[in-house]
Amino acid sequence: MLPGLVRNISYPFWDRREGGIRLGEYRRLKRAQWAPWEERDRYQRSRLQSMLRHAFQTVPYYRSVWTNQQLDAVLADASRLNELPVLRKADIRRHAAELISESLDREKLIAAKTGGSTGVALEVRFDAACQQLRNGAEMWANDLAGWRPGVLVGALWGSPPVPATLKQKIRNTFHDRVFYLDTMALNPETMRAFLKKVIKRDARLLFGHAHSLYELAVFARETDAPVPGLDGIVSTSMMLLAHQRAVIEEVFDTRVTDRYGCEEVGLIACEARECGNRHLNTDHLVVEIIDDDDCPVEDGIEGRIVLTDLNNRGMPLVRYEVGDMGAISRERCHCGRGLASLVSLTGRMADYFIHPDGSRISGISLVEKTLTAIDGLEELQLIQETRRLIRARAIARSTVERQVADEIRRVLTVTFTDEITVDVEFVDRLDQSPSGKYRFAICRVRDEDT
Predict the structure, then answer these.
(1) Which domains does the chain have, with CATH numbers?
(2) pLDDT in tens, 37-50
(3) 414-450 b/e with 16+ CB inside 10 Å = b?
(4) In this predicted structure, what is the pLDDT of residue 9?
(5) What pTM does this model have?
(6) Is 267 within 8 Å of 259 (Cβ atoms)?
């Protein structure tokens, strides 16, 4: 009864109170995903042209780095977007005030700060309408995972928000419909209590950090704890490794849908249950893949991910390099959606290791390869301290630790040559960041050394 009440009465009520954007955008995205490719492309181009005009006319930074000729060329032909300069995190930190639109009241913009995987803080601002559009996209992404408005969600998150005031509690009961397991306090007692709560309250969707979902699944498997019946599971915020997905899906007997986004622009891509492809949020973003020379690469070729936000008019981010590596495909998916797909996501550039010869190696891919190659190795974190020193923090069955250590050294030596030293340390748990995330690959080689 409560889900129906929330879906039909509470959701529309809260949506009207907050501007009447979120719910309409959710419904529009549900319809638009099936539109023909050409129609979606026209919609994206129209929004891109509007954002570029707005950015040039009202944002001091873009007036200083773009020319009229560049802008006119892109407005006439969107495929020439790459002729505009890339916006990097350092540019945002140096020119934050100049990136704010003069057409909006700076004091009314919403501030968000992200440390990313490198721990260097970055603050961005966005307008209220942008926030509601992003919320609508999140609802659409949840829908792709099996969620429906009003359904209760159990979430695993670091330092989660806890409703404190009466208004916040009412909103959480009749709108947000979510309860949390704080991943900063992940232990057998809290995981057991959380699983019981999911079952008792009939939550139909699990949402959380990929590794935390994996730890919950491993705990349930090893302790034979009762598991809930679910409509779906959403993995987000960090890389979901193949072996983690397999364990989560086996334990909970449902599909995991992986989601990719960031604080700066919101939802970037999300998997659909029917096809397993990670579809791009093309109504809200233009996604480019570029090489080391800032030139566009062909579909299917891995490169640096560059994003243009079509929602944020308060602090437009045009050709923003998010710091991740991936590849896209514009082939129409067999599920019928007229959406491009992110066909690979191989981790943050900060997590790429440096070979002694200067070439780059995906740290995440290396961790995954090592995990699948070594029997008895359960979890692994690799830290490259210098070009010739890698520390491996591992969790393994105690009876095979010596063999596992030898195999880790062998695999890494084969990859990097015998010029490197590999230090192996066995631990009980991998460390989390302050936000509750895990980093499996960390490169500490200084920029000037790369």
Answers:
(1) 2-348 (3.40.50.12780), 355-449 (3.30.300.30)
(2) 899 999 999 999 99
(3) eebeeebebebeeeeebebeeebbbbbbbbebeeeee
(4) 80
(5) 0.86
(6) yes
